[in-house]
Design brief:
Number of domains: 2
Distance between the termini: 40 Å
Radius of gyration: 19 Å
Shape: globular
CATH topology of the largest domain: Spore Coat Polysaccharide Biosynthesis Protein SpsA, Chain A
Number of helices: 12
Helix content: 40-55%
Strand content: 5-15%
Low-confidence stretches: none
Strand order of the largest sheet: 3-2-1-4-8-6-9-7
Structural class: alpha/beta
Number of strands: 10
Oligomer: single chain
Order of helices and strands: EHEHEHEEHEEEHHHHHEEHHH
Largest sheet: 8 strands, mixed
Length: 317
């Protein structure tokens, strides 16, 4: 059984069942250093404190040689603040590592894949992110176990301090309109629909608290690429009624099987984005369409409607 070489950060909140599923894989992978970051319960949610405690108690079951570190918020910050703060803490202490959220269940091959690519691209600043999920993309590549992509997917990933530190200052707080057109042209090309979708997404991300799209803006602004496996290695089990950010239980992006591979971890000869992969992600992850653009435009222009809907659903804002 492969044992993880890289340190692992797991970000948790109030979902003990999902957290236990991820923990069971971590127990098999036996990382030597495990970082646990937890947001505090919300005061207006009865029973949430008990769920948060039950979730943290899972890590009392670490029974392999492992240093365990905790970052537990005193007050609820919400996911879009607490998650980047947790990643800051992780990379303040580690040069590189693996990041999992409580609903992202990896395959065992994910750890070998991340370990090898973290070492391979350690000093290659063109690569800023290592995706664990490919959302079920069926690759016809027979000589590569990963492809290059413009998209950084936050469902189980790995990176380096040298990349994460680029996510600072204006990238966290301000969308630079004068550079956005250039960033979109360089990364998503000339498709009007795709460019308008991402323009709305970034406007939305800087109107509400959204860390992962702001991080993607930092990646694109620095010319960064992601490695994406040709075999899906992460199953997102967070869709459904208790999902942090919505999504129906029947959502095609959820519960995709996480698979293992015994193949050598190697990529294409040329470091260029795979257009077929990125087009697949446009359709199946981001679901770019007239309807999704309309919804994103409305969320950007009227964020109070989005926030009101989330409050009604009992979700974090």
């Amino acid at each position: 059984m492969y044992e993880a070489k890289s340190p692992v950060l797991i970000i948790v909140f109030n979902r003990p069942n999902e957290t236990r599923a991820v923990f069971d894989v971590l127990r098999a992978a036996r990382p030597k250093r495990l970082y646990v970051a937890a947001d505090a319960p919300r005061m207006n949610k009865p029973g949430e404190s008990e769920k948060c405690t039950e979730t943290l108690d899972i890590f009392k079951q670490v029974d392999w040689p492992c240093q365990v570190f905790f970052k537990i918020n005193e007050h609820n910050l919400g996911s879009h603040t607490s998650i980047p703060q947790a990643i800051d803490w992780f990379f303040d202490n580690e040069d590189e590592g693996i990041v999992l959220e409580d609903d992202c269940v990896p395959s065992m091959s994910f750890f070998r894949y991340c370990d090898e690519l973290l070492a391979k691209y350690r000093n290659d600043h063109r690569i800023m992110w290592i995706n664990g999920s490919n959302i079920g993309f069926q690759s016809r590549e027979i000589n590569s176990t990963y492809l290059y992509s413009i998209y950084a997917i936050s469902w189980g990933w790995a990176s380096w301090r040298r990349a994460w530190t680029l996510f600072h200052g204006n990238y966290r707080t301000t969308l630079e309109d004068e550079t956005l057109d250039d960033i979109l042209q360089r990364n998503v090309g000339s498709s009007f629909m795709t460019r308008f979708y991402w323009r709305c997404i970034f406007k939305y991300a800087y109107t509400v608290k959204n860390w992962d799209f702001r991080w993607l803006n930092a990646c694109w602004g620095n010319g960064g690429l992601a490695c994406t496996p040709t075999v899906n290695m992460i199953s997102n089990i967070g869709f459904g009624i208790d999902g942090m950010h919505g999504g129906r239980l029947s959502d095609s992006r959820g519960h995709i099987q996480a698979r293992d591979t015994s193949a050598e971890i190697k990529g294409p000869e040329k470091m260029v984005p795979c257009i077929k992969l990125d087009n697949f992600l446009n359709r199946n992850l981001y679901k770019i369409s007239v309807l999704s653009i309309s919804r994103t435009f409305l969320a950007w222009r009227a964020p109070w409607l989005r926030n009101a809907a989330r409050r009604i659903q009992g979700k974090q804002i």
